[in-house]
Write a structure and sequence with these properties.
Elements lengths: L1 H30 L5 H14 L5 H38 L2
Length: about 100
C-alpha cells in the first residue's frame, strides 16, 4: 500500500513538474521580441543562400526516377488487382 502511495505521489510530482515546464515555455515565448517583416524576409533570403540547390541535370534525373517508380508501382498494383479479381471470379463461379 505504501508503494501505491509513493507511485501516486510521484505521478502528482511529475504532473506538477510538467505544468511548471509548460508555463516556463509560454513565458519564454511571450518574452521573444517580434521581428519586423523586412527583417524576416532578409533572414529568409540569407537562409536561401545557404541552401545547396540541385542542378538541372539532377532535377531531371530525379524526376525520371520518380515517374518510373510511379509507373512501375501502378503496373504492379494493376497486376495484383487483376490476379485477385480472377481468383474472386473463379471462386464465385464454383458455387
Amino acid at each position: 500500500m505504501a508503494n501505491e502511495l509513493d507511485k501516486s505521489a510521484q505521478k502528482a510530482a511529475d504532473k506538477e513538474k510538467k505544468a511548471k515546464q509548460a508555463a516556463a515555455m509560454k513565458a519564454a515565448a511571450a518574452k521573444k521580441p517580434k521581428k519586423s517583416p523586412i527583417k524576416y524576409f532578409k533572414e529568409v533570403r540569407s537562409e536561401f543562400k545557404k541552401v545547396s540547390w540541385p542542378s538541372k541535370k539532377q532535377v531531371f534525373n530525379n524526376t525520371v526516377v520518380v515517374l518510373a517508380t510511379i509507373v512501375t508501382s501502378g503496373i504492379a498494383i494493376w497486376a495484383i488487382d487483376s490476379l485477385f479479381m480472377f481468383v474472386w471470379k473463379t471462386m464465385l463461379s464454383m458455387q
